[in-house]
Design goal:
Elements (H helix, E strand, L loop, with lengths): L7 E4 L3 H13 L6 E4 L2 H10 L6 E4 L8 H10 L1 H6 L3 E5 L4 H9 L4 E4 L4 H16 L9
Parallel strand pairs: 1-2, 1-3, 3-4, 4-5
Helix pairs in contact: 1-6
Length: 142
């Protein structure tokens, strides 16, 4: 069972940043549906309702209601969501060492600083996608 055609979920409260990621992913001509959220609480409700795992999740770190780390903690605390939401990637303008350290302490699979150009966003996302295409998901292993 391959997850490479499962949806990519993107959570970011900044509409401009969200649109840049979506544009970059569309330009990469992926087979995945792209599902976006501005609100982490709506994201959690959607994730709970999904019947399959996402290919991966991209979350901003700094959001007003709940930051990306708090969002990840909620997911990990829910037994079914924990294994349905791997990998979880932070995509942030904030590359503060403390945030990066806290993220990895809380089972984040990658912390990436948002590039400033669309081309750099595409390059970074392409590398992330290539890596995760070959990584096994817990529900795939025999």
């Amino acid at each position: 069972m391959s997850l490479t055609k499962n949806p990519i979920l993107i959570i970011d409260d900044d509409q401009d940043d969200l649109e840049i990621v979506v544009t970059a992913l569309i330009d990469l001509k992926l087979p995945n549906a792209l599902i976006t959220f501005n609100d982490p609480e709506e994201f959690i409700l959607y994730l709970k309702s999904m019947d399959k795992s996402p290919f991966f999740i991209i979350s901003d770190f700094n959001m007003p209601k709940m930051n990306g780390l708090q969002l990840r903690k909620q997911i990990v605390a829910h037994p079914d969501l924990k294994f349905r939401s791997v990998p979880f990637i932070i995509w942030s303008t904030s590359a503060v060492e403390e945030h990066v350290r806290l993220a990895y302490d809380n089972l984040i699979q990658g912390y990436f600083e948002k590039p400033s150009s669309l081309r750099d966003v595409q390059t970074r996302l392409s590398a992330i996608i290539e890596y995760w295409k070959y990584s096994l998901h817990p529900k795939q292993a025999n």
